[in-house]
Amino acid sequence: MHNYSISNKSKKLTLIALLFAGWFCDYLDRMVMSLGVTGIAKDFHLAPSEVGIVLSSFFVGYAFMQIPGGWLADKFGSKKLIVISIVMWSLFTVLTGLAWSLVSLLIIRFLFGIGQGSYPASAAKSIAENIPHKERGKAQGIAMSANPIGLAIAPLVSASIMATFGWRPLFIVMGVIGIILTTLFIYFHPSSKVRNKGNKVTNDEVGPSVKDVLCNIDIWKLAILDFGLSCASWGFSSWLPSYLMNVRHVDLVQTGIYASLPFVAAALTQMVSGWWLDKFLAGHEKIAMVAAGVLSVIFFYLMFNTDSLQLSILYQILASIPLYFNLTLIWVFVVKIFPTKTVGTASGIMNFGGNLAGVFSPMIMGFLISASGGSYISAFWFLIIAMIISIIATLALNKSSISNKGINGIEEA
Questions:
Q1: Percent residues over pLDDT 90 in the chain
Q2: Where is the chain membrane-spanning (predicted)?
Q3: Which residues contact 8 (CB under 8 A, 6 or more apart)?
């Protein structure tokens, strides 16, 4: 695949808007489960440990598809994989609303994860295929700002629909929205093009092979970094509604509002993170990420050590801002330092680490809560340990690996 960067500004904006919508729907569909599972747990009589397994079953399928999904995006182009991914996850979102037992729910959520698993690498591949190198940081930051917006809106949407209709219609409505989104990608996303023999070959094409990416130690360091950050982000977002309802004794509607606030702040952070990186942080990425990680640790600790509901919510917001700043930066690194032909594979490897965290984090927190008799303190210490892992992985990165020159010093076209 060749990098045919879009020169028309309106087409660039259309592409970024599509990817933004895709990420938004991706996170909305997966995160309605965090509040939806409160109704499911009552109907299916699930213990907290079983709820944790349900939340983690999605990530088993999701993690499984990261590297294959990235390779498929590199081989067949981003558009095909994006369309297939959205259709599949939307179908299994609808089927979640039709689940009849714990076992059926586990199978459906696993297959839902398989469906969503190709989207992250395909979206990163789309930016590498269509956006000039110098603009990729900003484009990736804007597109991925949809993630926390989805996290913010999911509790609000979930609470309103569940309060009126119950949890089953919630998932059916979300699945139908995804099918509608698919048609927009079919008609408006640029088709991936294969380079003609007469076209000039650029460094963006002749960069490292897939084997080189797999053998590069820094992509695996990024995977560990993503693992730590995602343990914190998925553990936090998965259990925050339950924490507010069970520990802080907030009602369903207020939980929807309060649980959305950290992710509103995170969305604003992600919108500007890529721009900050491009404009101000070049050469200082490690320092910025370590500082952000330390701030998250401090605010997570304060969050569960205050008796005040208002202060706890404030600390949740303040912990989310540096956490999502770092989550944006690692994705910007991938689209900037790896050539277009291997961005899908590199993204898949890195996100595999992040989604192993998604497999284990909600489940581990569920077991910790059950073992503690309903206390969330040990579960929140787990979030802090995860952030410390991410800080250590950041310190282990080679400075040259996160420069704008690309992997192995190859300058991109």
A1: 23
A2: 51-69, 81-100, 171-188, 257-275, 287-304, 316-338, 350-370, 376-397
A3: none
What are the sequence ranges of the domains in the chain?
Answer: 9-193+208-407
Q: What is the pLDDT of residue 192?
A: 66
Structure confidence at residue 405 (pLDDT): 44
- Is 302:315 a contact under the CB 8 Å cutoff? yes
With cut-offs at 50, 70 and 90, classify the pLDDT of residue 114: very high
Question: What DSSP letter does each residue of 232-282 carry, written as one string?
Answer: HHHHHHHHHHHHHHHTS---HHHHHHHHHHHHHHHHHHHHHHHHHHHHT-T
CB 96 within 8 A of CB 167: no
Give the pair of three-digit tokens for residue 299. 């605010």
Residue 117: count other Cβ atoms within 10 Å of its Cβ.
29
Identity of the residue numbered 317 = I
pTM beyond 0.85: the answer is no
Residue 7 has pLDDT above 80, yes or no: no
Query: Rounded to an integer, what distance in angstroms lies between the CA atom of residue 350 and that of residue 336?
Result: 14
Answer whether CATH 1.10.10.10 is correct for domain 9-193+208-407.
Answer: no
Residue 389: count of CB within 10 angstroms of its CB: 18
